[in-house]
Amino acid sequence: MPPVSGTTIRPLIETSREEVEAYLREQNQPWRTDDSNFDLEFARNRLRHAAIPNLSSEFNPNLVKTLSRTIEILEQEDAWMRTIAEDWLSKHGTKQQEDFVIAAADLRAAPVALVRRALRDALRQAGSELRDVSFDRIEDVRTLLEDRKSGKIVEIPGGIEVAREFNRLVFRRKLTVRADYEYQLKIPGSIHIPELGKVFRAEIVDSEWCETPGHRVFVDGDSIGSCVKIRNWKPGDYYRPVGLPAGKLKKLFQRARIPRSHRTSWPVVVADSTIIWVASFPVSREFAPRGRSQKIVAIEAVQI
Does domain 79-173 have CATH number 3.10.450.50? Predict the structure, then answer.
């Protein structure tokens, strides 16, 4: 037990009882002894008054000094290894908003002892106090470094979780289940979507347009009505983006390496039940402007 740990200071932790009592006698200072210190119902008292004296008499008269010296060595080596782990984590871990992220490959390449320490430090970075975080729980997190573990999650006591998202480990507060949302966007017009922290805008533009991949797309205005709907992704959504294979949106997310934790709230723009555009991807083929298009509508998503 170190003399200083966080906000706790133990000024006499390295001073023996005999030394304390000798000092008090020199100062003519009386003291009181707590009778519970001799109650062998407590494990600490059995260790102090039975186990250690027996071991000293049977095996090593200097057992207490030997144990103290061993503890001192271990504490110094622990401090040294802690510094190494903190330095490694500062080079290989990144804070991303509320999350803490480490590349899985970097962890796999590191010595196991360093990995265990780095994982505990990363949990602290994510807000864990490491209470009840056992050795076995850290080993569960290490299994996320194995192949084919993307999408797996290990829950940590205290409302923290560690997720394998493709080629990285993400340490974060446990995600709450996000409710479905649906909004109507008039053309022209704009709508704020608080669930995303974004504003979606639609405007009618002339024929000389330049598409910005991912954030702004252009749609054949004759193929949609006076408004579109913006909702979250739903299982089973089918999409035919320009320049990409048609198929389930889930597969497109996987190919684009979008983590599962982001998919449930991913914005999808639809006309009736047909997808027009999925944010960060090309416009759907059915709604892409053609040479004969009389009206072109620009739809964009802006982070606020």
Answer: no
